[in-house]
């Protein structure tokens, strides 16, 4: 009699991978058991945080499950997050007031800034909202005012103000509100320095009136008093040009000599870029993310708990089709994303375009059992392999 999995009953001959000792278990059941253990582990970690026991190393371990590379950034964020919520629990210790430390993430597009912020919010199980700095304008002008950022946080927890006041806000494209130079043709810098001035109060932890719906510019909107002293603000931006400026120093009139830049980004560099000194002072934790290499992108495709490969495999499995990516195929996909300089964010676009014809055709094919994605298919030279 042919051996079969003791858990689900699948026959050995029908399986791609089979473990045999005193008992038999198939690959699918191994994955299922692994997921059960991971869910239980994460539940215990969340429970331990509620008891005040979730330490920076625990936070770092969870970040590792979702974010590839960026080791220095993950360590810095783990410490910053732990310190912030210790301060929330006890803002004053032995007569010393613990001041809030907001975070600035600097890194190229697709390096993981937004993913890091989202994952931190999930770890702490707190409300999370994303705002695009490019949509903000100073009070009195068309566009979103800074208080609308807080409105999103209230909406994220169904109007629970007390819960919202302990959430995390991620402000994307933060470098786009840098102060314009004197050569700007605009009389007022309404989306630059004006927005920075507007952000000062909420970053430092003041209480402000926030519209429950829409914008404060709508005089009919109901407002509530929102205390921002326990809100963790994470700002992210590419800060294009800063890296080059850090490494090039003019010598004499015509020469440029490359010098070793300081390891840590200094506040004066952000001020030179166009952030006002007051805003820099309210974001003391500065974390620089690395450019992802092709090896990192290959890992991102496969290893995180919610990786793209795992997502698309699950999507095909719903139609009874096993999706297989050959190693060389993943290398080509990572190379294409690297060449386009879109980082991890571009991986989804590449894979979605690649698999769209399959997602259209294969659900109607009753005989499709396994679909293999090859290097040649990714390059457009051959079709995929269908079994």
Using brief descriptors, characterize the structure shown:
387 residues; alpha/beta; five-stranded parallel β-sheet; three-stranded mixed β-sheet; 16% strand; globular
In helices, the fraction of residues equals 40-55%
Mean pLDDT: 81
What is the count of DSSP helices, taking H or I runs of 4+ residues? 15
Q: Please state roughly what percent of the residues sit in beta strands, choosing from under 5%, 5-15%, 15-25%, 25-35%, 35-45% or over 45%.
A: 15-25%
- Quick one: biggest sheet? 5 strands, parallel
What is the number of strand segments? 16
Record the strand order, biggest sheet.
6-7-10-5-13
Radius of gyration, in angstroms, nearest whole number? 25 Å
In oligomeric terms, what are we looking at? single chain
């Amino acid at each position: 009699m042919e051996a079969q999995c003791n858990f689900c009953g699948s026959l050995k001959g029908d399986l791609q991978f089979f473990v045999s000792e005193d008992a038999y278990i198939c690959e699918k059941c191994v994955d299922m058991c692994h997921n059960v253990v991971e869910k239980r582990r994460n539940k215990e970690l969340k429970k331990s945080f509620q008891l005040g026991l979730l330490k920076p190393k625990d936070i770092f371990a969870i970040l590792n499950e979702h974010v590839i590379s960026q080791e220095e950034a993950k360590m810095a964020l783990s410490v910053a997050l732990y310190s912030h919520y210790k301060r929330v629990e006890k803002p004053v210790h032995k007569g010393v007031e613990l001041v809030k430390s907001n975070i600035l993430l600097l890194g190229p597009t697709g390096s993981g800034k937004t993913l890091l912020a989202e994952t931190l919010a999930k770890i702490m199980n707190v409300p999370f909202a994303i705002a695009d700095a490019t949509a903000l304008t100073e009070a009195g002008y068309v566009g979103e005012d800074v208080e609308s950022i807080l409105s999103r946080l209230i909406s994220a927890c169904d109007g629970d103000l007390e819960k919202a006041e302990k959430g995390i806000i991620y402000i994307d494209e933060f470098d786009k509100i840098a102060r314009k130079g004197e050569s700007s043709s605009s009389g007022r810098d309404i989306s630059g320095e004006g927005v920075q001035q507007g952000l000062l109060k909420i970053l430092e932890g003041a209480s402000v009136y926030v519209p429950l719906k829409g914008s404060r510019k709508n005089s009919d909107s109901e407002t509530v008093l929102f205390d921002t002293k326990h809100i963790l603000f994470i700002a992210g931006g590419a800060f294009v040009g800063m890296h080059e400026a850090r490494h090039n120093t003019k010598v004499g009139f015509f020469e440029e000599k490359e010098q070793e830049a300081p390891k840590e980004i200094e506040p004066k560099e952000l001020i030179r870029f166009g952030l006002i000194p007051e805003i820099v002072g309210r974001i003391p934790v500065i974390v620089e993310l690395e450019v992802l290499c092709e090896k990192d992108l290959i890992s991102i495709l496969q290893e995180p708990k919610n990786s793209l490969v795992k997502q698309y495999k699950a999507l095909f499995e719903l139609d009874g089709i096993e999706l297989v990516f050959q190693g060389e195929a993943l290398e080509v996909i990572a190379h294409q994303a690297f060449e386009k300089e879109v980082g991890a964010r571009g991986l989804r676009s590449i894979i979605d375009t690649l698999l769209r014809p399959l997602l259209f055709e294969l659900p109607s094919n009753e005989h499709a059992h396994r679909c293999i994605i090859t290097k040649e298919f990714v390059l457009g030279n051959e079709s995929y392999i269908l079994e």
